[in-house]
Structure formats: structure tokens, C-alpha cells
Amino acid sequence: MSTEKRHRSDVQREYRNEQIVVHWEPRYCIHTGNCIRHVPEVFNPDAHPWVAVDSATADQIAEAVMKCPTGALSFERLDGGEQEPHPEETTITERPNGPLYVRGHVRITAADGTIIREATRVALCRCGQSENKPFCDLSHRKIGFRTSEAGEPSER
Ligand code: SF4
Ligand code: FES
User: Which of 70, 135, 140 to mutate to test the pocket of ligand 2 (most atoms within 8 A of CB)?
Assistant: First the structure.
């Protein structure tokens, strides 16, 4: 049976059963919908809790979590299944009118050396207006940030 647990309300939530625990950090979620499109029976923003870990296999859930470009979702397998691998290379993919998606072994440090985040997936702001720098928070949409021909909609 799945459970929902909140760590420091609103900062990180976890959804678990005996096979897998899914972590969700709302401050990094920019609502791309990748997780919802991949396994809608598990990720449903209209349901409570919105992550139903009993509604698919741990393999399906892990695969969907790794589609999350911002790292808002992560998982830990409790059933001996494969954990998320660290990519061998680091890649940066620009999104039209939106952030930079970084995948790899990413460590972001502040000017004083404090580690801000270590992750395999992050979305970095390039419009300069995020209130959660260096991460994208969708502010690029509000300001109509453009990196390409006018007329294309802003990306998440
Ligand atoms: S894939 Fe990640 S960023 Fe996109 S909606 Fe799901 S949790 Fe949010
Ligand atoms: S690129 Fe998304 S908030 Fe700046």
C-alpha cells in the first residue's frame, strides 16, 4: 500500500510502497507534464495524493521519473531494482524560449563553495528572471522570453 509523507511541508514529499519511493520537490517542478504523459495512472495532478505508486510497476515508475527534466522527481528502488544511473556524459539542451536542460553528474555550488544541488537532471534559467536561480521557475513565460523566431510559444 502506498503512503505519502511530507518533509518540511512543501519542500519535499515522498510516495512509497515496498518496491519504490518517489521523491517530489515542488520548487523544481515547472509543470512540463512529462511524468503525467508517461504514466498518467501514476502521476495525476487532480488526485490526492498526486503520485499513486501502486498504479504501475516500479520499473514503469522509475522510467517515468527519469523523464523529468528538472530533477523535481527522483526515486529510490527498495526492491533491488536498478537505481538511476549517473550519465557518463553531461549534456546541455536548450529549450526554445525557455531553460537549459542539463543531464549528467551535476554539482552546483554557490560563490562561497556551498553545494546548492547535486543531481542528474536540472533545468537552469537563461532568461534571468527566475526567483529560484539558478533554476528555472517558469518566469520566462511571464516575461515572454524569446530565444527564437517570434510566434513560437514559450517552452517549459
Ligand atoms: S516531469 Fe518533473 S517538472 Fe515536469 S511536471 Fe513532472 S515533476 Fe514537474
Ligand atoms: S528560463 Fe525559465 S525562469 Fe528563466
Answer: 140
